[in-house]
Amino acid sequence: MINTQDKMAPKYLQVANGIKKIILSQGLSDDSALPSHSELVKRFDVSQGTIRQSLGFLAKTGWVRSQRGKGVFVNTIPACERREFLGNGAVGLLVVGGGLDTIVRRMIIDEVACVVGGLGKDMRIQNIQPDSTDFSQLKNFLTEIDSVALYGNVSKELILLLKQHNIRIAVIGHVPSDGAELEGVAYFRADMVMAGRLAGTVLNAYGHKKISLVIKSASSYSEFIQKGLCGACQSGGLELPAIYRCEDMEDLQSVAAELSSRPDMTGLVIDGGSCSRGLLDIFSGSGIKVPQDKSMMVIADGHVAEVQPSRFSKIYPYSCIDVRLQAVTHEALSWLMSGAEHSVVKFIAPDVRMGNTLELCS
Asked: Fewer CB atoms near the end CB (10 Å): N or C, the chain?
């Protein structure tokens, strides 16, 4: 049926706008075929003559072209015209690396949808691989948005591409993977220096004097965690005899073997839920008890610590430094929706969440 908000326009223009919405909402690319005349007649409940008039108007304005005996096909539509039709553009969420179906990513998607939907804007979601240099898959995505939140292993090359399209950019949670902050881009992330400092301070308060740090090799913020933890050690008289960098389960096996031979290192600071779950798996098989033998402070989003399922349910939830990714996402979206143009780098303070992986050192 025809969209009632266009009812003051001539019928053929109402239908033309409806066809534009089909093209954009379904992400039809160049050379994609439109539905047949008969299908459009049924969809819009109008005559064949009105459909021909609508398609003629769209052909005249450059949206489509007709090929005799083959049908009607979508043309390359200028980005400015797409955005103008969409009402100054939708808000995009571009996730770099991994999929969309993880606890953290689902939480980010829900938060973005909540903020964007609450202000009556449309939302577009796209996922690309971090090592991709072929951005052609973003072609339609970029023409439909006027602002975007980036999450994941964001590269300078990707940000520069977005800037070329005059898209406003907010980066969520990550340090740029290949350079410093760029002018005209907003960055929102947890204060990971403070997170490292808090983890060391809590372990110190529980009587742990020798601690170790386990961090992911690919982490873009491990240096900040290490800096904060070293600061806590210096001010609190803690020893940090070992820092382990892990890439896979084999590395974690080696770390667990060394930790089992060091009963004096009773406190662990672990970067991320995946490392902590891996160590718990290995510890359970080697007779190391958490938190009796080793106390853990995990630096991760609190939602992961709360809801991540595990067969080690008796020691969940984690004692963690909650990096509050939901709050970081909300700040980024609030900046995007405000229309602000200035660059900003904002750090969100983490929280301490006490769980079942921490015990007083005897």
From this structure: C
